[in-house]
Amino acid sequence: ILNVEQSPQSLHVQEGDSTNFTCSFPSSNFYALHWYRWETAKSPEALFVMTLNGDEKKKGRISATLNTKEGYSYLYIKGSQPEDSATYLCAFDYGQNFVFGPGTRLSVLP
Amino acid sequence: GAGVSQSPRYKVAKRGQDVALRCDPISGHVSLFWYQQALGQGPEFLTYFQNEAQLDKSGLPSDRFFAERPEGSVSTLKIQRTQQEDSAVYLCASSLVNEQYFGPGTRLTVT
């Protein structure tokens, strides 16, 4: 059974704070690691696809790093805004399918 | 272009009723996935199609769940004799290479 964990489960921050959360995944059979942002009542939106150990990707104020040897990825949000409020999901891609973590629910208070 | 669409967006069913959930993938996407997301958990894999062929149905929780994609585009997930534990958001995703694009989901509530 492939286990993907995310922490924290939920997070409340003030507007302007920077924050980060973690995705832990198996260190074997790795193909890719995907990050999604899921706002209520909308479709999950792809943020990053990460494939190489040491990868760092950035999109605006959001960035992510990847360590495939130890099996973790960090997602960082710099200067959080209320519109960043969403659930952030990571998905471990082992080539045949995805296994999702339970998500981190972020609330950014104005 | 148009993304993945799902209908209905919300469905309330009485226990024992049959339901059918529809997914319209992105045009040209070969792969189609169904996931079930229970409250407080991540999406869990149900089944996977490549064109019209159902290649993996290992995640379907019981024989009350059935999925089809007869012409290799639109897919339907059918749940027979719904139970309360079937209450969840059902997500559909389509893919051309390895990145999955998701629909907004159907929230099913079984009363």
Helix coverage percent of chain B: under 10%
| Average pLDDT score of chain B | 95
| C-alpha geometry of chain A | globular
Largest chain interface and its two residue counts? A-B, 24 and 21 residues
Main beta-sheet strand count, sense and barrel state of chain B: 7 strands, mixed
Gross geometry of chain B: globular
Structural class of chain B: mainly beta
- Helix fraction of chain A, binned, reads under 10%
Radius of gyration of chain A: 13 Å
Following the backbone from N to C, one meets helices and strands of chain B in this order, namely EEEEEEEEEEE
Helix tally of chain A equals 0
What's the total helix number of chain B?
Answer: 0
Average pLDDT number of chain A: 95
Report the span from N to C terminus of chain B: 37 Å
User: Strand pairing plus helix content of chain A: what structural class?
Assistant: mainly beta
By oligomeric state, this entry counts as heterodimer
Task: Give unreliable regions of chain B as ranges.
Answer: none
Say how many strands of chain A there are. 11
Which secondary structure elements does this structure contain, and how are they paired or packed?
The complex is a heterodimer of chains A (110) and B (111).
Chain A lengths: L4 E3 L2 E5 L4 E6 L7 E7 L6 E6 L5 E4 L2 E6 L4 E6 L8 E8 L4 E3 L3 E6 L1
Parallel strand pairs in A: 2-11
Antiparallel strand pairs in A: 1-3, 3-8, 4-5, 4-9, 6-7, 7-8, 9-10, 9-11
Chain B lengths: L4 E3 L2 E4 L5 E6 L6 E7 L6 E7 L2 E4 L8 E4 L6 E5 L8 E8 L4 E3 L3 E5 L1
Parallel strand pairs in B: 2-11
Antiparallel strand pairs in B: 1-3, 3-8, 4-5, 4-9, 5-6, 7-8, 9-10, 9-11
Describe the fold and architecture.
The complex is a heterodimer of chains A (110) and B (111). Chain A has 110 residues and is mostly beta strands. Chain A has strands at 5-7, 10-14, 19-24, 32-38, 45-50, 56-59, 62-67, 72-77, 86-93, 98-100, 104-109. Chain A is globular and about 40 Å long. The relative contact order of chain A is 0.34. Chain B is mostly beta strands and 111 residues long. Chain B is 0% helix and 50% strand. Chain B has no helices and eleven strands. Chain B has strands at residues 5-7, 10-13, 19-24, 31-37, 44-50, 53-56, 65-68, 75-79, 88-95, 100-102, 106-110. In chain B, strands 2, 4, 5, 6, 9, 10 and 11 form a seven-stranded mixed beta sheet that branches. Chain B is globular and about 40 Å long. The N and C termini of chain B lie far apart (37 Å). The A-B interface holds A 4, 6, 31-32, 34, 36, 41-46, 49, 89, 91, 93, 96-103 and B 3-4, 33, 35, 40-45, 48, 56, 91, 98-105.
